[in-house]
Amino acid sequence: MISAFLHGFLLALGLILPLGAQNVFVFQQGATQPAFVRALPVILTASFCDTLLILLAVWGVSLIVLQVVWLKTLLFLGGMVFLLYMGYATWTSPAGSPAEERPEPLSPRQQVAFAASVSLLNPHAIMDTIGVIGTNSLQYDAPEKWVYTASCILVSFVWFVGLAVCGRLIGRLDRSGKWLKRINRLSALIIWGVALYMGRQLLG
Fold it and tell me: How many CB atoms are located within 10 Å of the residue 162 CB?
């Protein structure tokens, strides 16, 4: 039981650590929302989307979906277009203005829509989940498999809460908005990089 838990925990942590569009968006919302509780929609949405992908990977359903060529192509195309738009919106966000002059932060509905999109319209995240978490789950039978799965899910919830907390701390310290502007620019470049990579994969 303990070995299955540690296996899932370390595996999920290794997958979620790299700075991607999902992590960037959660961190950004933690920094720009006026109160931590206002960032809960993005935290919960990202966590539940990861939970869904992990469960699908363990059950093997997502592997079947990605074997349908037209569906895989549509997923790549939709994800690429959305990330290009999100990168533009992030780059042009006026977060560099003083705190009292900043525009209204994203509403809960907008947070949910954006978080779900960057989580579920990311084919690479899906394939990483299948190739790593899904494949490694094959060595376990119940109940060890469910301990392994629960451990992977736990990492997502803890990680996204931590990201939002870090974002909030930086947002409160950065009263001029200069650091938030730099973070937004870096975020946009990362998001565009992911979109271009997806486009290359699509053309290839």
Answer: 14
Q: Helices in the chain by DSSP H: which ranges?
A: 2-16, 21-32, 40-59, 61-66, 69-91, 108-120, 123-128, 135-136, 144-173, 178-203
Residue 137 vs residues 12, 77, 133: alpha-carbon distances, Å: 12, 29, 6
Amino acid identity at 81: V
Distances (CA, A) of 58 to 11, 91, 120: 14, 37, 16
CA distances (Å), origin 106, targets 3, 110, 162, 164, 183: 41, 6, 20, 14, 17
8-48 pLDDT, tens digit per residue, is: 888 888 778 766 778 888 988 888 888 889 999 999 999 99
pLDDT tens digit string along 133-163?
887 787 788 888 899 999 999 999 999 999 9
> With contact defined as beta carbons under 8 Å apart, do 45 and 51 qualify?
no
For the chain, the structural domain boundaries read 2-12+20-203
Burial of 160 (0-12, 13-18, 19+ CB in 10 A): buried
123 burial level (CB within 10 Å; 0-12, 13-18, 19+): buried
Read off the tokens for 78.
């939709």
